[in-house]
Amino acid sequence: MAKIINVVKGTKDILPQDAPMWHLLEKNALDIFTKYGYKEIRTPIFEVTELFARGVGDTTDIVNKEMYTFEKSDRSLTLRPENTAGVVRSYIENSMSRLSAPVKLWYKGPMFRYERPQAGRQRQFHQVGVEMFGVKDATADAEVILLAVNYLKSLGLNDLEVEINSLGCPECREVYKNKIKEVLKPEFDNLCEDCQNRYEKNPLRLLDCKVDSCKEIFEKPEIKAVIKSDFICESCAGHYSKLKSYLDELDVKYIENKLLVRGLDYYNRTVFEIKSNNLGSQNAVCGGGRYDSLVKNLGGEDTPAIGWAMGMERLISLIPTIEPKKLDGYIVSNSPADAFKLASELRDAGLVVEFDLQNKKFTKQLEKASKVANYAFILGEDEVKNNMVSVKNLSTSTQKQLDRKQLWSEYKNV
After folding, report:
1. 327-413: which CATH architecture?
2. Residues ≥6 apart with Cβ < 8 Å to 181
3. What is the pLDDT of residue 289?
4. At what angle do helices 234-249 and 138-154 cross, to 10 degrees?
5. Three-class SS of residue 169?
6. In the structure, how many helices (H) and strands (E) does the chain have?
7. Which is it for the CA torsion 36, 42, 43, 45, positive or negative?
């Protein structure tokens, strides 16, 4: 017997019984995002490696540890670990800056990161996300956060916490970085290896560390005081204040979290996460923020932008399982040719029907119908001869003969 080949670790099949959950996420995304004026974009699942090195940042764990990169025809290509960089590349390449601002885009699809599989996250995982280009005012920040909250509510998720923070602009953030480095210098040897590596390259990322020993260091009074300090400049503070006032007006409850920095280098000013208490320690279901310099850094015009992404596997782990819908009807017949013909007529009329391709006994077919369908459409010799169909309501056991021409419009009355 040949050896069985199993699915690759960190990937999963989406089986037929799971598909309705994915359809729900995708349908709600299309419905709700369209109402907000967002249009779908689909970008390739692999891009040149340089896009992610420049876009995501060469100090991030994603670029340093997690990307699936391969060589082809002397080019370095990478399976996308996230989709903001790809959407920005498309925005620039397709001259979307010529469109009237704001340019609102949304996407869904697979992403790839080589990391330890965890609850709601695999090495091939799926995200749904939005990006908005061309608006620098805090109205854009408030809209994308409200959109995220309303999308989650549409899925029945209400036990949520919105956390926000401001990372400031490059100028005021540089002052803050130096203060962080100064106050953490005496603790350098006690930091984890990742934090020691980030100390020079990107000290803000230290605040995102999940290692308990580092968290304890950040809680020391003299260090905590610096972390909690209001370092942002007057302009950034004004932007942040407007965002909070808009969220208050929209009745979006939020918590300010000074340790919230997000894991990607391109963020500035507003960053946010939405968390669920049902996911344990890895409880973020949505993350995003502003990336006002990214379009310019990737060769485009200076363009303000903001967006977010959600892991679809994590969302699915939080919403109730959807029971598969039953067929409208199941055709019971020992004449495959007649069953084929009736099935085609009913499908053309918009009904979801099946019949027994193996031509089993009537009793077996009726048994199958009772399990998978709401109605049994019975074609015996008399029904075929008189151009009729016997319809059995499988929930009430009532049965009635109907003219074949009126079957599709009358069967629900049985």
Report:
1. 3-Layer(aba) Sandwich (3.40)
2. 199, 200, 203
3. 95
4. 40
5. coil
6. 16, 16
7. positive
Written as six digits, the tokens of 397 are 């056991």
- Residue 15 is given by DSSP the state -
Q: How do the domains of the chain map onto residue ranges?
A: 19-169+232-318, 327-413
3-state secondary structure of 229: coil
Compute the distance between CA of residue 47 and CA of residue 57 in angstroms, rounded to an integer. Answer: 15
Whole-number Cα distances in Å, 293 to 49, 60, 161, 312, 410: 19, 17, 28, 28, 61
User: Is 80:113 a contact under the CB 8 Å cutoff?
Assistant: no
Partners of 162 in the beta sheet?
274
Q: Check if the beta carbon of residue 155 is closer than 8 Å to that of residue 332.
A: no
Q: Which of 123, 104, 167, 171 is nearest to 7 (CA)?
A: 123
Structure tokens, 27: 């349908």
The reported pLDDT for the residue numbered 207 is 76
Q: What is the DSSP string of 60-114?
A: SHIIIII-EEEEETTEEEEE-S-SHHHHHHHHHHTTGGGSPSPEEEEEEEEEE--
Output the six-digit token pair for 148. Answer: 């995220």
Find out whether 236 and 172 touch, Cβ atoms under 8 Å.
Answer: yes
How confident is the model at residue 123, as a pLDDT? 92
pLDDT tens digits along 237-283: 999 999 999 999 999 999 998 888 776 667 889 999 999 876 655 67
Question: What is the assigned CATH class of domain 19-169+232-318?
Answer: alpha beta
Taking a C-beta distance cutoff of 8 angstroms, is the pair 166, 269 a contact?
yes
Q: Which residues, listed in sequence order, are joined to residue 403 by a DSSP beta bridge?
A: 388
- CB-CB contact of 52 with 64 (8 Å): no
Beta strands 399-403 and 103-112: pairing type? unpaired
Q: E-strand spans in 80-123? A: 103-112
Contacts of 3 (CB under 8 A, 6+ apart): none
| Model pTM score | 0.87
Residue with tokens 């998978």, as numbered in its chain: 372
| Rounded Cα distance, 358 and 332, in Å | 11
Burial of 328 (0-12, 13-18, 19+ CB in 10 A): buried
* Helices 170-184 and 193-201, axial angle in degrees (round to 10): 140
Rg, C-alpha atoms of the chain:
28
Instruction: For residue 160, give the nearest of 173, 172, 151, 169 by alpha carbon.
Output: 151
Give the angle 361-362-367 at the CA atoms, nearest 5°. 100
CA distance 345 to 76: 53
**352 SS3 class:** coil
- Tell me the HSE value of 82 on the side-chain side, using a 13 A CA sphere: 27
